[in-house]
Design brief:
Length: about 70
């Protein structure tokens, strides 16, 4: 899709709605990027039978995010 917009740092994190951090665009933090990634992965593996309402996106609490530092991606 051609949805090109000049990013002037006025974005919002789709996960928690906080201001976007340039480093983690389009998210506000590595944590939210990770949440989105796991969401996406789950969606890719488990395709829901019913049509779900994807209109209202609500922030999903990360499962257990306190203990593990997580794998270091590039
Ligand atoms: Zn966020």
């Amino acid at each position: 899709m051609a949805d090109i917009k000049p990013t002037s740092g006025g974005g919002k994190c789709p996960i928690c709605g906080r201001p976007t951090e340039l480093k983690y665009r389009p998210f506000c933090s590595h944590r939210c990027a990770d949440v989105d990634l796991s969401r996406w992965l789950r969606g890719a593996y488990a395709i829901p039978d019913e049509a779900e309402d994807e209109d209202g996106e609500r922030p999903e609490p990360a499962a257990d995010d306190d203990a593990e530092p997580g794998p270091d991606r590039h």
